[in-house]
């Protein structure tokens, strides 16, 4: 490995934006090893390996504060990578089971094979789903149980294409939010409020939030480590931007 990497080269190789690397430096997660001409950040080989560990942990669903605690305590890079590998292999096995389940379900629906009821749920983690639902109830009270039931009713007849469409709409809103952040827009900017109308309609495909629950949902995006990791992967300010923009939208347009 080369002895030193510029921030531009490191961003290109890792797929992380220059802005994100600057943020990691600012919060002390990945400090630059030196500043070159014009203030350009440069990173030594050890820092490049540290970034790899950061990204591995981020992919496992940890938030930035949790990642910092882990990498700061790691003494042996090889042992740390072995621990990451164990987690990745476990996740790969889970995903492979889900792939087999979905593939078999498609074949069953197309009449190519019969499928036992129990096989429909192979690889699905009910504990993870239950944890998400419990978090919603903790945040929004018993009313969240009605939202969960409503969501299940609305999606009961969805096929794969409809589910993919819903996911794509969330992705599109997030990408548009990143563009607003990069353009320097505030969360209460009219453009952000209009974008959150689209977010509200995306959520509305599953359940109908009011002012309090839509605001609370945005706050959960920022506070939940699993959601936070997803948004951090796109932009380090995305989770907080969405939370604030959803609150602004709810205040102006919802009861």
From TrEMBL:
SMART domains: HTH_MERR. Keywords: Activator, DNA-binding, Transcription, Transcription regulation. Transmembrane segments: none annotated. SUPFAM superfamilies: Antibiotic binding domain of TipA-like multidrug resistance regulators (SSF89082), Putative DNA-binding domain (SSF46955). InterPro entries: DNA-bd_dom_put_sf (IPR009061), MerR-type_HTH_dom (IPR000551), MerR_fam (IPR047057), TipA-like_antibiotic-bd (IPR036244), TipAS_dom (IPR012925). Residues 4-73 form the HTH merR-type domain. This is TipAS antibiotic-recognition domain-containing protein. It comes from Streptomyces fragilis.
